[in-house]
Design a protein that fits this description.
It is a single chain. The chain has 284 residues and is an alpha/beta fold. It is built from eleven helices and 13 strands. It has two domains: 2-113, 60s Ribosomal Protein L30, Chain: A; 119-278, 3-Layer(aba) Sandwich (Alpha/beta knot), CATH 3.40.1280.10. A seven-stranded parallel β-sheet has the order 9-8-7-12-10-13-11. A hairpin with a 7-residue loop joins strand 1 (2-4) and strand 2. The protein is elongated, with a radius of gyration of 21 Å. The protein starts with a strand and ends in an 8-residue tail after the last helix. 39% of the residues are buried. Bound molecules: S-adenosylmethionine. The site of S-adenosylmethionine (SAM) has 17 residues, from helix 10. S-adenosylmethionine is lined by residues 206-208, 210, 228-229, 231-232, 234-235, 248-249, 251, 257-258, 260, 263.
Amino acid sequence: MTAERSGAPGRVREVSSLANPLVKDIKALALKKFRDAQNAFMAEGLKLIIDALDLGWTIRTLVFAKSSLGNPLVEKAAARTVAAGGTVLEVPEKVLAAITRRDNPQMVVGVFEQRWQPLKSIAPATGDVWVALDRVRDPGNLGTIIRTVDAVGARGVILVGETTDPFAVETVRATMGSIFAVPVARASQEAFLTWRKGFSGIVAGTHLKGAVDYRGPDYGRRPVVLLMGNEQQGLPEVLAGACDLLLRIPQVGRADSLNLAVATGIMLFEIRRAALKLDGTDTR
Ligand code: SAM
């Protein structure tokens, strides 16, 4: 069932059926091929949606639970969606549960346009740090890394080769909203290597057999690209060969390596040590 809300601007609709085509389109965003076809993705939670609107992301649809009608923040987000030319759907909780595939869904869901940073527009300056991820597979790792990049004030993420989708629901959830704050670029391995030739900063790779302790280098003098290897295979020769440094995080114990997101976090806090004033001062 779809009904135009009387008195509301044209694009606010009450929808109760799971068979409604608008609902079906949003549900389809669970699959990458539909995200790509629609150039869209879904984000859950009111705070996150307000942040996204504040950061200028284009909202296509705002879906909210009937039970949150009257919440001034929800109504404001709805008004902003309509003003931006988007559609607002007022739905029962069962529709939100179906869209999010959760028993206890968030009361508000937004569908946004995807945004990619073109690789050729990335020209890091001194003090900038970008993270390049070789064939990252796990959405939880990618989301956690995007969140950490945001937290340390690094500039963004470059996805190299075939990777998991930053706009998958699991990845967006793991970013905890940082997907809207962190530019993401993508490149084939070949395109990344070509871009790297024109980059005069430090490409700092991490490798289990790295010759350099990660705490040694002075990262502050030039822009840095931190290059992290694939979860199963690590960095291939061709990428390792393109690095200025191959860094190792010392380990004891039986684990043969660190989790990718953990290793990236350790590296980022070391590289950003001076900028973060890691002396107990919270710089937020
Ligand atoms: N079996 C893989 C290998 O042989 O490299 C393990 C990959 S590890 C799970 C994923 C990535 O995290 C590595 O490619 C590297 O970039 C980084 N990493 C994990 N532990 C590390 C360590 N102790 N020193 C340096 N980098 C590490």
